[in-house]
């Protein structure tokens, strides 16, 4: 899923969240939140990941 992971990373960047592909096949998301992340920021990340997956046709809207 190398292409899908790259597409998801690009979409997340458009939504204001930086994630990077990693792994031998570049199909794993690298998420590095700062150690001072709070609940609001974690919720924002989860919401944007859900939105990006739904927009790309790979997720479910809760």
Describe the structure.
By secondary structure, the chain is mainly alpha-helical. The protein has one domain. The chain is about 50% helix and about 10% strand. It has a two-stranded antiparallel ribbon. The model has no long low-confidence stretch (mean pLDDT about 90).
For the record, the count of structural domains works out to 1
Radius of gyration, in Å, reads 12 Å
- The tally of beta strands, per DSSP, is 2
* Quaternary class: single chain
User: Outline, from the CA principal axes?
Assistant: globular
| Poorly predicted sequence stretches spanning 5 or more consecutive residues | none
Biggest sheet: strands, sense, closure? Answer: 2 strands, antiparallel
Order of helices and strands: HEEH
Arithmetic mean of pLDDT: 91
Q: Roughly what percent helix? A: 40-55%
Per DSSP, the total helix count is 2
Give the distance, in angstroms, between the N- and C-terminal Cα atoms.
24 Å
Strand order of the largest sheet: 1-2
| β-sheet strand percentage | 5-15%
Structural class label = mainly alpha
């Amino acid at each position: 899923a190398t292409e899908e992971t790259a597409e998801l990373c690009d979409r997340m960047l458009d939504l204001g969240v930086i994630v990077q592909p990693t792994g031998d096949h570049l199909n794993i998301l690298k998420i590095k939140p700062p150690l001072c992340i709070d609940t609001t920021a974690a919720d924002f990340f989860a919401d944007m990941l859900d939105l990006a997956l739904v927009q790309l046709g790979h997720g479910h809207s809760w």
